[in-house]
Structure formats: structure tokens, C-alpha cells
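Narrative of activities, Objective 1.

The group set out to show that a structural description can be obtained from nothing but a protein's sequence at a throughput compatible with the screening campaign. Below is one input-output pair from the validation batch, recorded exactly as produced.
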Amino acid sequence: EKKKRITYKGAPIRLSADFSTETLQARREWSDIFKALKDKNLQPRIIYPARISFTYEGEIKSFPDKQKLREFVTKSPPLQEILKKALMLEKRKKG
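Output recorded for this entry:
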């Protein structure tokens, strides 16, 4: 774990990066979706430990897993188009 001392409102706080195998694997699983969103300038972010968030129609959307993302995407044809390839790749990897 890499640690760095910083302060928040004058008080020292400690942040540590999580490089555990589980976290790295979880983050890696978002890579195709992250790239598709980034290509469309939707400002994707991977949030600790492995959520994805992005700006869509002026709002920040955040998803803890791909199932929740899929449920949201089914209601949004433009997002379906953006993520179609990434979500299909996911199904192929599993199946």
C-alpha cells in the first residue's frame, strides 16, 4: 500500500491506495465500458473500489456493478448504442 500524508480542513488525514488483486480485477472488468464512455466524452470515473460513474444528460450516474448499468442502459437507446459493443464483449467473455 502506498501512503501519502495530506490535510483536510487543517487536520492530517491518511489516504491509501488499494492494489489488492480483487480491486485490480474489479477495476479491469470495467475497462471496455470505461473506454466506450470516454470515447464519447462522458467523463467516466472508476470510484473506489470498483464503481463506475459518468456524466449523462447533465447528471452524474454511478453504478456499483454491470447488472445495474445494464438495467439503466435498457431505458436509454443512445447509451445502448454507445455501450453496445462493450456490453456484448462482456457477455462473450463470460459465455
